[in-house]
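Annex B, item 7. Sequence and structure tokens for protein A, then protein B.
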Amino acid sequence: MEKKVIKSISIFLVVILISATLAPVAFANSRVNDAKSSILRVVAVGDYGVYTGTAFVIAQSGQVTTLVSNLHIVSGQHTVLILPDNISGSWIPATVTYLPDGLDLVILTTTTGLANRPVLPLSRAETAASADRVYALGFPGAADDPLDDWDMLLSGTEDVTVTDGVVGRPHIELDDGVRAIQSNVNITYGNSGGPLLNERAEVIGVNTWMYTQGAYQNSYSIHIDYIIDECIQRGIPYIAGGRGFFAMYWWLIAIIGGIIALGTIALVLVMSQKKRTVAPAYAAAGAGAYPAGGPMPGPGYAPQQPVAAAASRQLFCTKGQLAGSSYPLHSKLAIGRDAARCQVTYPADAKGISSMHCEVMMQQGGVYLTDKGSTYGTFLAGGQKLAANQSVMLQPGAIFYLADPVNEFKIT
């Protein structure tokens, strides 16, 4: 029995190791391909010509779809259109919202035809590092130029071009003070306004410029942080990308957990076999062989163990203006800007934080988080936004944030 179990475990471990090698690549490829459904072609028409570029979906609210692109595509043009299939198909008019001066970014909104398009999560540029693999999605001119008939310019999901590369410098400040990511991803005109994705298919930048010298090329993508801040200010319901080790390597954690679980099962099987082998010899000694006055040992018998008292819980601020602060969870903690009602108080000028934002309560041995009708929302670690007055139970180690991932708390 033991030999069969050990052999089965060995085979399983080999399969797991092979899967662990291939899983990251397969995961990234799948997520990036799914992201193509959020990419659309922009056509801007003016008195002196027609310009094309790329846009991507960042929010859906009712019939309103919100997209992001580059300012230089639409600047000075009198008509801006979104093409969900091709130039001879449907054209959807878009409204342009200009961002602050000096930013080559715009927010586009439509009210028809795009409500079924998925939203791309946004992850601040601080999550990017040198040598990270990244992907540019869009409609580059290098793919469009070979077409003989411009009137049949293809713009469907299957026509989105994907190029990949690595981050050279994740944080570079250009001459105009704009912060950007430098990479060796191959982009050309037409890619402008498209997203730069990490391996979790989260947007970390907006593809804007390229620099070529001989065979050497650098691409520059404006930090998506500008758009995240604008979403918070305008109340646009964007999705925050995953953060930290657990979001990046969930597949590895799952594999390790599977190995541990299978190993535990195997150990139980081996021990059970040993007990069945020893039991007859033990019983042959007769009833007198059992401890006098003790219970008769049998299948499933185990002495009762005292239950340890639950440790006191703490609310710990991991990021933002209150980073490093810790608060004991004896009963209830209100978080917000109103010092008269809140035990965890932010400064009066804290962006995105409501007067009474949310509440953390210790009740019947569990920790519960409740949004108190905040303006910019209370979110769980995966980006799930709580409805007003909605309560959720948090396990030890759970992470949540207020308005923006920079205002992060952890239950310890």
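Protein B:
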Amino acid sequence: MLTDAHCHPFDLLKVFPAMEEERRRLGVLCAASATDREEFAYNEGLAGAAHADGAAGLLPCFAIHPQLPAYMKQRGEECRPGEGLALLETLAGQGRLAAVGEAGFDLFNAQYRETESLQEEIFEAHLDAALRHELPLLIHARRAMHKIFAVSGKLKKCRAAVFHSWPGTADEAQALLGRGVNAFFSFGTTLLHNHRHAMRSCATLPAGRLLLETDAPYQPLRGSARPYSSWEDLPAILAAAAELRRQAGAHGSSAEELERIIETNFCSVFGVTPCPD
């Protein structure tokens, strides 16, 4: 079964109305992130409909995105995370979340760096919630690996830490594992865009630590007729990952074998038992 460790169905719908039909046709099991009440309600509705129809599952996740404080500041608004954190606590307490995420840090440019202290505050609250409710944490860490290593002592207590579109090096990934973090590293279309660090990490890390994702609609394939990513991209991402591992002589070097391994990883992380057929 194809799996997608990180996507945004609510946003994908805006550019691809047939997105859920495509997901069901391909039989993709996915973790769907939401950043507000409306988005979460939409994802939860999709999950319920898929369950009722016996289709491949959709697992709702929730967090305050680390870019939100900067976006609100740009609009002249103050980011007050209390409401979002209260919603997170309610959803987690009611058993309605598959994961806390995506949460983390974005220090890509000066605009985002201006909100670094608020990002730290929000991330700490997310990590605490993941620990308190024994949920995996889906992490966004753009130009912020130093922030992740700074909290690795606490992060290793987390059920699992999933790094969305893994931004680090293979050595950094191994260092996190060496510190006892139950880390999983997710890869998307960067494997097809000649991103050296992502390619080396995917090729050399233990197969039992790998996940795949679309980040739909935000990581379109270059040269594609679609200006957005979707579940149709997963077979190409999987094939690229398997080829990288074949060239490296690593376990999981055929697409069929790697798909089974990644499905097992996904089900372990998100608590899907047993994995759907």
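Comment on protein B: The two ends are 7 Å apart (CA to CA).
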